[in-house]
Amino acid sequence: MPDTVIQVENLGKMYTIGHQQKGSYRYTALRDVLADGAGAFLRKLRRPGKSFTPFNREEFWALKDLSFEIKQGEMVGIIGRNGAGKSTLLKILSRITEPTTGRVRLKGRVASLLEVGTGFHPELTGRENIFLNGAILGMRRAEINHKFDEIVDFAEVSKFLDTPVKRYSSGMYVRLAFSVAAHLDPEILIIDEVLAVGDIQFQKKCLKKLESIEDSHRTIVFVSHNMSTIKGLCSRALLIKDGEIVKDDMPETVATHYLADAQEQQAMIDFKDSYTAAEISFLKAYLCDKENNLSSSFDNRDAFAIHLEYKLHKEIRGLRIGFLMETIEGIQVCGATDFVFTDSTRKPGIYKSKCLFPAHILNSGKYTILFGADKFPYTQSLMRTEHCLTFEIEDIDRERPLYDRRPGIIKPTLTWQVVRPYPKNQ
């Protein structure tokens, strides 16, 4: 039987969050800090037993009593909504963060790709960072040299190999970071959804590489919001909700449970600061019926509208805003973008992209939508959300109320012709 390479026992991670008390100032200057420090010192001298602080402290448990094992050669997908605790778990498995309670046992070398540039020194060149990462993994220089050309070829950064990585684009960072992590033969590879940002063709290349790594009986822990990727690559999946594992099963079963749990029909979402980048921030998304009212339930015979509000922080040429629609089972239905012209430029400001989805297309059932943004030449993703809007299509046939549901995802209204066969020659 395969060995256990990751063993997690009663794992918990607690953070302390500070909240300013009501009435405390919002802006703090240096003189305020010095004055407060002096004041607090004097108050302590006068009343040593009393604590004076402008903050209330709150304990937040990002992970609660997690226990599971992963065998050698397994590819395990981690699923969960934003804030569920997925990234915290990966940081603990990668030895970046210490757990508050419990313990983790790892057998073998661990390589992780958690976010752009993790593990790279910005002042060092791409070449130097390859050797640095290899050394961190405990590899000899001869072993790294043996893999060096393969790493560079896969990452497609040969022209910039002797350039400090602080001058790399985010796409170059991701390509080199993934290539290093995948080719330096770690026994355990941990990947967050960093691959969702970057070149589409390179993402496909990475997925093929992950398949070859799995075939070599190395262990992979993979976080993704893409249910198709999880179901296509992984042999097992864990669903995390509010810091706890609520499902550990086959990927198809866990994905269905996750989407079903998320399908509390949601007609509108305020992204707040969840999705913001240097060039664009998503503000709000919502669904409206044919009368422009917020709704999460629509008749198959009626059109409905999909809205996304966003803010551009700088001028963008060839921007595309789009959505991907899936069924509750994670089957992709369709995608669409607001693309018009490559050379069109959108200036900084707040925008809304609206898509009118026609009637007589979707079959009855539950559906979910996620949003994304990219720009010309459309190989680099600027932003991608998780599934954030959910809705139901109802098949209300008033003339035939007992009519059975048609098979399939779509239910178009099609034009038929019935032609009487030509009479046979007598």
Protein model, in words:
By secondary structure, this protein is α+β, with helices and mostly antiparallel strands. The chain has three domains: 13-59, no CATH class; 62-262, P-loop containing nucleotide triphosphate hydrolases (Rossmann fold, 3-Layer(aba) Sandwich), CATH 3.40.50; 268-394, Coagulation Factor XIII, Chain A, domain 1 (Distorted Sandwich). It has eight helices and 21 strands. Strands 5-6-7-3-8-9 form a six-stranded mixed β-sheet, with helices on both faces. β15 (319-327) and β16 (332-337) form a beta hairpin. α3 crosses α4 (141-155), α4 packs across α5 and α5 (170-183) runs parallel beside α6. The longest helix has 17 residues, at 30-46. It is globular and about 85 Å long. The chain starts with a strand and ends in a 32-residue tail after the last strand. The model is unreliable at 22-31 and 398-403 (pLDDT under 50). InterPro entries: AAA+_ATPase, ABC_transporter-like_ATP-bd, ABC_transpr_TagH-like, Bact_Polysacc_Export_ATP-bd, P-loop_NTPase, Wzt_C. This is ABC transporter ATP-binding protein. GO terms for molecular function: ABC-type transporter activity; ATP binding; ATP hydrolysis activity.
CATH topology value of the largest domain: Rossmann fold
What is the CATH architecture term of the largest domain? 3-Layer(aba) Sandwich
The H-level CATH homologous superfamily of the largest domain, spelled out, is P-loop containing nucleotide triphosphate hydrolases
- CATH level 1 class label of the largest domain: Alpha Beta
Number of separate helices: 8
Biggest β-sheet description: 6 strands, mixed
Average pLDDT: 82
The overall number of domains is 3
